[in-house]
Amino acid sequence: MRILSIASEVFPLIKTGGLADVAGALPGALAAHGCDVVTMLPGYPVVMQEIARAKAEVEAFQLAPVLGCEARILACELAGLKLFVLDCPQLYDRLGGPYSDSGGHDFSDNWRRFAALSKAGARIAQGAIAGYRPDIVHAHDWQAALTPVYLAASNRPRPRTVLTIHNLAFQGNYPSQVFPELDLPTATWSIEGVEYYGNVGFLKGGLHACDVVTTVSPTYAKEIVTDGGGMGLDGLLRGRGSRFVGIVNGIDTTFWNPETDPAIAANYSATDIRPRIHDKRAIEGEFGLRREDGPIFAVVSRLTWQKGLDLVAGICSEIVSRGIRLVVVGSGEAMIEGAFQAAHSRHPDRVGVRIGYDEPLSHRVQAGADAILVPSRFEPCGLTQLYGLRYGCIPVVAKVGGLADTVVDANHAAVAAGAATGVIFSPPDEASLLAAVDRTLELYEDAGVWRNMQAAAMKSDVSWEKSARIYAGLYRDLMKE
């Protein structure tokens, strides 16, 4: 099966969050199930630089102007991925990240930048590149969500389409004034098209137009068809019925592997976890923490309200008072960043903070910390807890979305059976989080129980194998139609 995957970010080329990890890891997992995946992404400067640095063999295909912008497709293989890169300097050759400038402000023409990605993807899906026509188009999140809209609006034969929601909070809603610039038929300005309360809804339009909607965990799929969790799109999602499914994410277990990870101080395994103490000592040194035998809890995340990191900041002093040390890696909302920096100032040898994204450091923290805090108010899937499981860094998670689907709570029965892999709490508030911290500390102080939990966590299947099989089956079913 030929699969065209379209995403705004793909690890290891460009990453701001879990979407990139999924888009980068899923193609390799699908290959074992007869899927030949080509991933399409924008030609951001870092992507173009990596192509040049790697001296990748590139085949270029000129496209007709896309939404008024000159563009071409660069086909190459890079970082183990087959790629179509949309080379359109007018839209993507600029300073900053994939969505915002160096000051953190969203680019004002993001609607055009990602409509162009979708438009170009639709053209490729219908044969714009000689000799290539996919069986399935798999679009990811709002940035690629207009792809099925463009395909459905065409009177030409088209492949079947899948749209995955990675986070319903980000929908790509723009003023109605942009609609005439999207090169869509007038008929798509309707409640069954892209019109959304008088605005243009990229994600909303894609949810109507695609053949199947997926999201990244079964529990999140249940949450977002409710009035409270659907963020205005619950009715539409309920209307998709059996055409809306939750498939839990996995991780690249080759890249995230404590037995071989070159980023960490000492390698270890579930059967011999003893060398992990060297990773803990390395974290103490890197963050300037007091060296002692007590536990280190960690946060590796975007520092946002959604992720519940204001809750951690709010109980920082209580955490420290229990003899726990805390390390924080991430960036996000200024108020939360400031709260953690203030906590570091109050407790310089007990709270370590690193503002910013650092991939190798995230590996070292997962390898050296004892527990990872993920107190999200909502969480489509979450990958941080999967990394924690893989590295024996016990997840302490809110009972929401994919967190609830991937962690086995350390209740009495699960501990007795040796099945516990983490601590789950509810609701996501300061009191419940602090109670979960206390429960985790109690478990940590029983060395035998803690080692059993680490071993069970590290043996958890967090790979893409099972989910890739489900995706491949879904693609096959669509092709039969």
From TrEMBL:
EC number, as in UniProt: 2.4.1.21
Q: Which Pfam families match?
A: Glyco_transf_5 (PF08323), Glycos_transf_1 (PF00534)
**GO CC annotations, alphabetized:** cytosol
Annotated catalysed reactions: [(1->4)-alpha-D-glucosyl](n) + ADP-alpha-D-glucose = [(1->4)-alpha-D-glucosyl](n+1) + ADP + H(+)
Pathway in which this enzyme or protein is active: Glycan biosynthesis; glycogen biosynthesis
**Annotated GO MF terms:** alpha-1,4-glucan glucosyltransferase (ADP-glucose donor) activity; alpha-1,4-glucan glucosyltransferase (UDP-glucose donor) activity
- Which GO BP terms apply? glycogen biosynthetic process
Mind listing the UniProt keywords for this protein, alphabetically?
A: Glycogen biosynthesis, Glycosyltransferase, Transferase
The keyword Transferase is annotated on this UniProt entry: yes
- In the record, which residues are listed under signal peptide? none
What NCBIfam families does its record include?
glgA (TIGR02095), PRK00654.1-2 (NF001899)
The record's comment on protein family reads: Belongs to the glycosyltransferase 1 family. Bacterial/plant glycogen synthase subfamily.
What is this protein identified as?
Glycogen synthase
Species per Swiss-Prot/TrEMBL record? Jiella pacifica
